[in-house]
Amino acid sequence: MLANIRIVLVQTYHPGNIGASARAMKTMGLTDLVLVNPRRFPDAEATRLAAGAEDLVEGARVVASLAEAVADCVQVVGASARLRSLPLPHFDEPDDMARTLVEHATADPVALVFGRERFGLTNDEIRLCSHQVSIPANPDYGILNLSQAVQVLAYEVFRAWRRRPQSDHRPTLPAEQRQPTREQLGHFHDHLGRVMQGSGFLTQPHAQTEAQLQALFARAQPSRKELSLLRGLLASLEQRLPKREG
Ligand code: SAH
């Protein structure tokens, strides 16, 4: 149940929060937990706070980067209490987020990403997301404990899953019409970056321009077929570029 919906915790400081998040997930039928560079794991405190969800803690995968944690996902939603400057599509209402997440999860893996207790997600990490979501809260005190934020969003996902339209009438789209994985999108942006530099449009890597283009394509939500069309276009432009020395 809900096996395609992954919870990713980035560099969690308190192992207890990992256990409490696992418990929050299990109450809502989620099972796929991925930890990016946790400070202490495995840890007795994580197991203690899991309180019956030890199986999720034991089954958690530990990876070295967020990119690795979400490479196979078609939608990656970063949970953040604050709006950042990056113009990614943003859900102000968690139930809207949960509906689209559940819809995409019928065919492909998707992820909900949570930041560190002290400083959340970095801009580079947010850039790896396709969307952001905020839990509406007291404007003067709106930051939830990590595992409680997991609980709220896991609840919304479970609710959306219970109310999902019956899939019998809605066959899964063929792969080429579905969203690309984050890895496929990453390869596209690398390719675009190479062509921008090779053509002289950019004379050196320019993080801001690249971030703006990433946000543009995040909003456009190209299908795999559209993305391969763009890759073809880039490849043909690349062939006409003067060969660079060195
Ligand atoms: N001090 C950090 C917040 C850390 S709370 C900061 O200012 O960014 C730990 C994590 O819980 C956050 O990274 C986020 O993923 C989640 N979280 C906490 N409150 C949230 C809220 N209101 N909306 C969405 N996510 C929230």
DSSP helix fraction: 40-55%
How many DSSP E strands?
7
- Globally, the shape reads globular
- Give the strand line-up of the largest sheet: 3-2-1-6-4-7-5
| Run of helices and strands | EHEHHEHEEHEHEHHHH
The CATH class of the largest domain is Alpha Beta
Rg over CA atoms? 19 Å
Q: In angstroms, what separates the terminal alpha carbons?
A: 53 Å
Low-confidence parts lasting 5 or more residues at pLDDT below 50?
none
CATH superfamily descriptor of the largest domain: SPOUT methyltransferase, trefoil knot domain
Identify the bound ligands.
S-adenosyl-L-homocysteine
Strand content: 5-15%
Number of helical elements? 10
Q: Could you explain how this protein is built, in words?
A:
By secondary structure, the protein is α/β, with parallel strands linked by helices. It folds into two domains: 167 residues, 3-Layer(aba) Sandwich (Alpha/beta knot), CATH 3.40.1280; 65 residues, Helicase, Ruva Protein, domain 3. It is 46% helix and 12% strand. The protein contains ten helices and seven strands. It has a seven-stranded parallel sheet with strand order 3-2-1-6-4-7-5. Helix 1 links the parallel strand 1 and strand 2. Helix 1 runs parallel beside helix 7, helix 5 packs across helix 7 and helix 8 packs parallel to helix 10. The termini are far apart. 35% of the residues are buried. The mean pLDDT is 93. The protein binds S-adenosyl-L-homocysteine.
